[in-house]
From TrEMBL, chain A:
Keyword Flavoprotein among record annotations: yes
UniProt-listed SUPFAM superfamilies: FAD/NAD(P)-binding domain, FAD/NAD-linked reductases, dimerisation (C-terminal) domain
PROSITE patterns: TAT
Protein name: Flavocytochrome C sulfide dehydrogenase flavoprotein subunit
Signal sequence annotation: 1-16
Protein's organism: Roseivivax isoporae LMG 25204
Gene3D superfamilies (UniProt xref): FAD/NAD(P)-binding domain (3.50.50.60), Flavocytochrome c sulphide dehydrogenase, flavin-binding domain (3.90.760.10)
Sequence ranges assigned to domain FAD/NAD(P)-binding in this UniProt record: 31-145
Domain Flavocytochrome c sulphide dehydrogenase flavin-binding positions: 354-419
TrEMBL record, chain B:
Entries under InterPro entries matching the protein: Cyt_c-like_dom (IPR009056), Cyt_c-like_dom_sf (IPR036909), Cytochrome_c_Oxidase_Subunit (IPR050597)
Superkingdom to which the source organism belongs: Bacteria
Protein name (database record): Cytochrome c domain-containing protein
Pfam families: Cytochrom_C
Domain Cytochrome c: 37-112
Organism: Roseivivax isoporae LMG 25204
Keywords annotated in UniProt: Heme, Iron, Metal-binding, Signal
Length: 420, 112
């Protein structure tokens, strides 16, 4: 057995939990490595550690010591949550669940040796590997924009400092200025997210800068919850929001971060804030592991295992699985199916049939919440939607307020489900 | 057999959802509570619930850990029949059979 210093330390840290646990298949404890500590990875690590009662050695590799959720970050932009309420650390996963939390970047996967290389040096061996790396942006997706331009034109599509930067820019906008969003093409993380963000920016501007304008440059014909957002924008924000779609050339958009201009099919607009959300693909480690097909990593619908390698599982935004939206809720749901399958493969625990679900809440204005959701089941071909629902236009304010309150309860529950 | 019974019940009750037949509903709840409950299966099924139902009471989603089994069975049967309305819960409950409801009720009634 190969052990490096980190793995030894991890084993010692988990030692108290391992003592007294049943010996598994007469061997040393099997090793699971989870890459990415978000809704998919943190949930998978916690469920595998908890359900195995220490019989499986779990290592979680996550570069940030404090994780800021992308979900609910729009509420921070809208001034309805403070940033600290979106931050979570990994102390409970280490202390109560015996998970070996390694704050480092996973930079490579050797699938033959079954090891994960770390940016800080060394490698971690695994019997089963769970990759939940989220998204990266596709280079050249919006001509003129790259990561070196993200201070002038933030994406704010990964939680934390980018979110804080975008809110600061909205608050600092000149009177009557223009906030522009370059929206992403499908598929992307959190389908209603860009439009909830527009709602929250409009909420802030209507209070502090009511003559400001909002411009959405959108390469898509339509988008999630469109009728609900359009009704709400008309109701709450009058004529503040304008959307340019592909019928006016929005798919031919480039930006100039130095000049703060957007070129939409040849028409150049000067803007004051420019939120560029580029086209997306699976996080880099999934590509480095050689398990992607195009932009995403195809998985088996029954257990979230990679179609390219039975010892690797892919969760959340990075996975190509079928009908589930790329959401934190979906990743959390997929993680439980994955954890059950991993435990079944490594121990003698029972494996249950996969069942998936998702709900996405969005806030249009304070106390005006809407939702869309579905249940899913695996087929041979994909994870397929079985039943679905969506909020209706024209709902009473009490219904919308109750929906918003639900979303607050969900945030508390899912973050506890992830981080313990 | 119970599944067929519930389908017939749904057909009888749904056209007049405002006035469900309480005796039929009560019999259905009693039938489910009499099933042998697989608590390990319940723990697996419950992982779908804990995405929203935490052990605290923050926000507008009720805590369900520790509720009596009869209450949980009654709520899920009512959601399945449409006698109690909530989009998320009706979608979730629709795909729960009697065995699943019994397992969930056993798990949550014993959960801290």
């Amino acid at each position: 057995m190969r052990l490096n210093r980190r793995a030894v330390l991890g084993s010692l840290a988990a030692g108290a939990a391992v003592l007294g646990a049943p010996m598994v298949m007469g061997q040393a404890a099997p090793r699971v490595v989870v890459v990415g500590g978000g809704a998919g990875g943190a949930t998978a690590a916690r469920y595998i550690a908890r359900e195995s009662s220490g019989a499986v050695n779990v290592t979680l590799i996550e570069p940030t010591r404090r994780y800021y959720t992308c979900f609910f970050s729009n509420l921070y932009i809208g001034g309805l949550r403070d940033m600290e309420s979106l931050g979570h650390d990994y102390g409970t996963l280490a202390s109560e669940y015996g998970i070996n939390v390694v704050h480092d970047w996973a930079v490579g996967v050797d699938r033959d040796a079954r090891t994960v290389a770390l940016a800080g040096g060394g490698s971690v061996p695994y019997d089963k590997l769970v990759l939940s790396p989220g998204i990266d942006f596709k280079e050249g997706a919006v001509p003129g924009w790259d990561l070196s331009a993200q201070n002038a034109m933030p994406h704010a599509y990964k939680g934390g400092s980018q979110t804080e930067l975008l809110r600061a820019q909205v608050l600092a906008m000149r009177e009557g200025g223009t906030y522009a969003m370059v929206a992403p093409p499908n598929p992307y993380r959190c389908p209603p997210g860009p439009y909830e963000r527009i709602s929250m920016v409009a909420h802030v501007l209507s209070e502090v800068n009511p003559t400001a304008k909002i411009l959405i440059v959108d390469p898509k014909d339509g988008y999630s919850k469109q009728a609900l957002f359009e009704e709400g924008w008309q109701k709450h924000y009058g004529g503040m929001i304008e959307r340019i779609g592909p019928d006016f050339g929005a798919q031919n958009t480039s930006v100039d971060p130095a000049a703060m201009t957007i070129d939409i099919d040849g028409a150049v607009e000067s803007v004051d804030v420019c939120n560029v959300i580029p086209a997306q693909r699976a996080g880099k480690i999934a590509h480095d592991a050689g398990i992607t097909d195009g932009d995403w990593a195809p998985v088996n619908p029954a257990d979230m295992s990679s179609r390219a390698d039975p010892d690797i599982y892919v969760l959340g935004d990075a996975a190509q699985q079928g009908d589930m939206p790329k959401s934190g809720y979906s990743a959390n749901s997929q993680a439980k199916v994955c954890a059950n399958a991993v435990l079944g493969a490594l121990t003698d625990s029972r494996v249950f049939p996969a069942r998936y679900s998702n709900t996405c809440w969005s806030l249009i204005a304070p106390e005006d919440g809407v939702k869309v959701g579905a249940t899913y089941e695996p087929t041979e071909e994909k994870i397929a939607s079985t039943e679905s629902f969506i909020s209706q236009t024209g709902e009473e304010p009490e219904v919308r307020a109750a929906t918003y309150q639900e979303s607050i309860g969900w945030y508390a529950a899912i973050t506890a489900d992830m981080f313990g | 057999m119970i599944r067929r019974g519930l389908a017939a019940l749904a057909a009888a009750v749904l056209p007049a959802a405002a006035a469900p037949d309480h005796e039929l509903v009560h019999n259905e709840i009693a039938d489910i509570l009499a099933l042998p409950a697989d608590t390990a299966y319940g723990a697996w099924l419950a992982s779908e619930c804990t995405s929203c139902h935490g052990v605290g009471t923050e926000g507008g989603i009720p805590q369900i850990h520790g509720l009596p089994a009869g209450y949980i069975v009654g709520a899920l049967v009512d959601y399945r029949l449409g006698a109690r309305q909530h989009e998320v819960m009706q979608t979730i409950a629709t795909r729960l059979g009697e065995e699943e409801i019994a397992a969930l009720a056993a798990y949550f009634s014993e959960a801290d």
